Amino acid sequence: MSLPIRSKNRDPGQTKFRDLEIRKDLHLSILKPTHLELKVICMRRNLTVQEVFEEFVNRLVTGTPDMIDLLNDIETKKRAKIAQRVNNIDAESLYDIIQRG
Asked: Which of 2, 12, 64, 98 could form an S-S bond across to 59 if both were Cys, CB 3.0 to 4.6 Å?
């Protein structure tokens, strides 16, 4: 097995830049109707879902204020959902205790 020959004229910074261009695959699971609507929205603008997600993630990573607001909104909804679940569990537990008497 032979090692690749390195060119002496090669810019070491060029390799680092090329490493930054490597893409990572991301698997998402969304509801079919949501996916269909997303595809329609993208097609109407001659965009791909890839282009839309790439821009979305770039704005998220750079901390664009509207993206921070979106994250805050999602976090608030998630906490409310968890709190509601806990309340439902507590109510069911109390009901079970009362039933057992």
From this structure: 64
pLDDT in tens, 5-48: 555 555 655 666 666 678 888 888 999 999 999 999 999 999 99
Q: Is the pTM for the entire model greater than 0.90?
A: no
Paired tokens of 61: 């990573």
Q: Residue 24 gets which letter from DSSP?
A: -
Q: What is the DSSP string of 63-90?
A: T-HHHHHHHHHHHHHHHHHHHHHHHHHH
Q: In terms of Cα–Cα distance, which of 7, 48, 49 is closest to 28? A: 49
Residue 23 lies in a domain: no
Give the end-to-end CA distance of the chain in Å, rounded to a whole number. Answer: 77
DSSP 3-state assignment of 59? helix
- Decide: residue 100, CB within 10 A, 0-12 exposed, 13-18 middle, 19+ buried: exposed
- Count of structural domains within the chain: 2
Interatomic CA distance for residues 12 and 8, integer angstroms: 10
Domain that holds residue 71: 65-101
Structure tokens at 55: 């821009």
